[in-house]
Design brief:
By secondary structure, this protein is an alpha+beta fold. 28% of the residues lie in helices and 35% in strands. The chain starts with a helix and ends with a strand.
Length: 453
């Protein structure tokens, strides 16, 4: 027992509190009484009789370790009565280094890593992290839905060119009411990205920004490919869609449904540029030097469900930055010069922020597909490999029926069913399988809704 006491003292009490496992805590709690008895005996002797340690502990060391063990036992008691289980989650984030400010880039990369960890684990998060010389000195974040975080550690940092990448570990805690929270969507959604619209086209004259609306849609699709975890873009940047988002709350608005059918998209993301005005240039050094004028950029993102036609998410994003180009200079919106400028980098950062918010909106929404073709007992759906479908996946059918309301508008009704079928063919954007029963008996038809089980 003396040997056991000495070994536990030298190993467990020197273990960092944040690295203790549940098993270690239970071990300490179960042996604490016996160990304290032996410590009382050891304190009366200079050397521990029969101790197998490389160096025996003196009385002062024993008192210190007794206090440590008591603190550890109290901690373990609180952990043992906690019904939740903690676990570590790794996450990676990256950010651009601007104006040689590595700390700011590190802070942004950590924020991105925390957000992506949240999305992968099925929770949303608001965070505020302060970094000084590579050390995390202040962490404040709030998680909703499924998990709570207890600690965060920096694992590694890598700088490649003007990009900084961090790898962090988050200690998260599953709540007892896990089952009552939302289940993270297992599929990604196809989002139609049409050409952006602008409220005042005359604002594009400054800089002669020809086809800026098209290039903004192209840039958004590129950033979605790089940063989105819950969606991918169906790019139609040359197609201008005059969708009145105010009608998104109107029953029977059928244009989104038609667009979803023709593009096999689950959602439509409309960009409306609200403001690109230019502020007057300011002067410094008693008028000897003119500063670059500031230019606004404000855009409203509207996410429309293609089946219901409803606007399910809408948010205004804005920023302003210096416009470094000459007054009469033509700036090509598809050029590297534009996107490497402070103004272009600000738009990029805005698009990335919008994509993160969009992912947070989609994380708890199931991705709904539809039956797009039928032949005999074979059904074809508009969900494929890129959405996350695989061979042998089971698909549930939700019967969809449109009825006419008193204003001659169409309203959709969904009827849950027990009808399922298994996929035997999967392509990039579609999949198919054979329904084992006769199709007529189940009332299945084209445009019925499908979800992955």
């Amino acid at each position: 027992m003396q040997t056991r006491a000495c070994l536990l003292l030298t190993s467990l009490t020197n273990t960092g509190i944040d690295t203790l496992t549940s098993k270690q805590c239970q071990q300490i709690a179960s042996t604490i009484s016996a160990l304290l008895v032996h410590l009382a005996k050891l304190s009366r002797k200079r050397y521990a009789n029969g101790c197998s340690c490389s160096q025996a502990l003196d009385a002062k060391e024993i008192r210190v370790k007794t206090k440590s063990l008591l603190l550890l036992s109290l901690l373990c008691i609180s952990i043992s009565f906690d019904a939740t289980a903690a676990r570590w989650v790794n996450a990676t984030g990256q950010a651009s280094i601007k104006n040689d400010n590595i700390d700011a880039a590190r802070q942004e990369a950590i924020k991105q890593a925390i957000t992506y960890a949240g999305l992968s684990q099925g929770f949303t998060m608001q965070s505020q992290t302060t970094v000084d010389q590579g050390h995390i000195i202040n962490n404040q974040w709030n998680m909703a839905q499924q998990l709570q975080t207890q600690s965060m550690k920096m694992i590694s940092e890598l700088i490649i060119g003007d990009e900084l990448q961090v790898n962090i570990a988050l200690l998260v805690q599953d709540e007892a009411a896990y089952e009552e929270q939302c289940t993270p969507a297992s599929l990604t959604a196809a989002i139609l990205v049409p050409q952006a619209t602008i409220k005042d086209r005359s604002q594009l004259n400054y800089g002669q920004l020809v086809n800026f609306e098209t290039e903004l849609a192209n840039r958004l699709a590129k950033q979605m490919e790089a940063y989105s975890h819950k969606s991918f873009a169906q790019l139609h940047s040359n197609d201008r869609l005059d969708i009145d988002t105010s009608l998104g709350q109107t029953r029977g608005y059928r244009l989104p449904d038609w667009l979803g059918k023709t593009t096999d998209s689950q959602y439509i993301l409309q960009l409306n540029i609200e403001d690109m005005s230019l502020l007057p240039a300011t002067e410094s050094m008693f008028g000897l030097m003119a500063n670059d004028p500031l230019r606004h950029f404000a855009v409203t993102f509207s996410l429309i469900h293609s089946i219901s036609g409803e606007v399910i998410w809408q948010k205004l994003f804005s920023h302003q930055a210096a416009w470094p180009f000459e007054k009469q200079q033509q700036v090509l919106p598809n050029s590297l010069v534009f996107w490497k400028s402070r103004y272009g980098q600000g738009i990029d950062a805005l698009l990335i922020d919008a994509i993160k918010d969009l992912d947070n909106e989609l994380v708890c929404r199931p991705t709904l597909g539809q039956i797009v073709a039928m032949e005999g007992n074979r059904l074809v759906i508009n969900l494929g490999r890129r959405h996350g479908m695989n061979l042998q996946d089971t698909v549930e059918i939700i019967l969809k029926r449109d009825i006419t309301d008193r204003l001659s508008g169409m309203r959709s009704l969904a009827t849950p069913s027990q009808l399922t079928f298994r996929l035997d063919q999967v392509s990039e954007l579609s999949a198919s399988g054979v329904f084992e029963e006769a199709l007529g008996t189940g009332g299945i038809q084209v445009q019925d809704v499908v979800v992955k089980q």
